[in-house]
Amino acid sequence: MSNSALDRKSRVWWRDSVIYQIYIRSFADSNGDGKGDVKGIESRLGYLKKLGIDAIWITPWYPSPQKDHGYDVSDFMDIEPDYGNLDDAKQLIAKAHELGIRVIIDLVPNHCSDQHKWFQAALSAEPGSKERDRFIFRDGKGANGELAPNNWQSVFGGPAWHRVTEKNGKPGQWYLHLFAVEQPDFNWKNQDVKEYFEKVLHFWLKLGVDGMRIDVAHGMIKAEGLPDVPSDPKLLEGKPMPFWDQDGVHEIYKEWRKILDSYPNDRMAVAEAWVSPASRIARYLRPGELMNSFNFDFMGSKWDKSNMVEMIDRSMQALAEVGAPSSWVFNNHDVTRSVDRFDLGLGIGGGTTAERHGDGSKLNIERGVRRARAGALLMLALPGVAYMFQGEELALPEVRDIPDDRITDPSWKQSGFKNKGRDGCRVPIPWQISDSGSHGFSTNSKLGKSDSWLPQPKYWGDLSVEKQETDPDSTLNMYRKALAIRKSEVSLGDGPMQWLDLGGNVLAFKRSEDFICILNFGAEIELPIHKDVLISSAKLNGNKLPTDTAVWLRA
Ligand code: NOJ
């Protein structure tokens, strides 16, 4: 197995790649129905090639009632009809491969849709039946079973249990749903479930996908006896919550690794495991387990030098112990976009609801964009893999004015209409300047922006791909240049790094004797001696590096 000690040509691809996340519903709509689709992705492969990414990760494209936009899967071995069909998927994979772009899909093993045939069978079956055993059904507490089996809360708000009506018309057992009510959790101690997902893996690997992003990778195994969460987190005594990060999940990944390795061309899996600290992430990346795991601690870092340095150091140390590459990420479809976060000083879960979802009157967008661009050069220079989210290359901000009646995130309803959720980062991509239609998101030119599944802001034409194409200093062109340099610069991607002390509020490191990355969080500084400026995230002031600016130097 290749490792970071080898040179880049001999290293396996998932140690060095830049992976671009496509939120399929919002990327490109080829059939004019206001929702993105598989053919839409295919139509934009040329754009992705020119951008310079190595792989795409496509969010769930399976048949789904879309209660959580595809993360509620009703059939794991087909394509959502709104998005296309299996032939479209095969063609997309083939075309991407022709261009040298790898394809990662999203596997959702913790739960399914309540419309999945297994769950429907479980509902019609008796308590204690083998159909119910594929899920987590329990009798309720209280004299008549009227109380939930334990005190677990759903990630989207409210209790994590829902009571069903039995065939006799009476209230009956409860089932566990860590997410939406329509997303029942599988029972991973059930053999059918294990075998089913092995089939699902083989199905897609045979179809030619290069990897899987594993949704809620830390959630499949629940603590024995489903104990209550203690009222005081201290009582957990450092142990994880009873539904997250249980040792048993690693047994699943050991089996899956064997399956991945049984296919040619280095198939991979990346864990979506919201676990901390980095030493817990490292457990998912031990030899014989998974290949990448998103670095959410880093994603949550504030615009602050010491916070970032600490996150980088911790991750590098923990992952070095298991010989795995770090997977840097600043954006995805679940968090407020970095333009807003970095300006407002928010962590990913931080800030008040008003800061995250308010009108944005406190937002200094120019500064947010400046910081997001500097952050991008930092991320792309760090050792390991980088994951970016569609629209990040356009420096899209969070959309804060989606009307309440257009919000679709299940958190909105489940939180009693308090938490507006994640729609603000999921607004369809503006491809064209024109404000007539959906800024080129849809091929249906009659489709107004408010007809796309989420409405796009009127001003987004100014941020569109078409507009940014023509501006050499645009964020899009900065990403293209940075990704091209990253490709040719053999010291980038996985490999060693060394901190440099440039004093003050300056984060700086070397990737080789002649490659330096500097990000200045503080007052303007003089650049150290160098031969050449390879790229900067904003204009330099002569030989000075302004505040909130990053630069790559040839030393
Ligand atoms: C994590 C996904 O990223 C998120 O969008 C989804 O709602 C949950 N998992 C549940 O599947």
Word description of this protein:
- This protein is 27% helix and 14% strand.
- By secondary structure, the protein is an alpha/beta fold.
- The strands form four sheets. It has an eight-stranded parallel β-sheet.
- A hairpin with a 5-residue loop joins strand 12 (498-500) and strand 13 (506-512).
- The structure holds 1-deoxynojirimycin.
Q: Level of helix content? A: 25-40%
Small molecules bound = 1-deoxynojirimycin
Number of helices: 16
Average pLDDT reading = 95
Distance between the termini: 33 Å
Query: What is the strand arrangement across the widest sheet?
Result: 9-8-7-3-2-1-11-10
User: In the CATH scheme, what's the topology name of one domain?
Assistant: Oligo-1,6-glucosidase, domain 2
Catalogue the unreliable spans.
Answer: none
Which shape, going by the Cα principal axes?
A: globular
Question: Strand pairing plus helix content: what structural class?
Answer: alpha/beta
At the first level of CATH, the class of one domain is: Alpha Beta
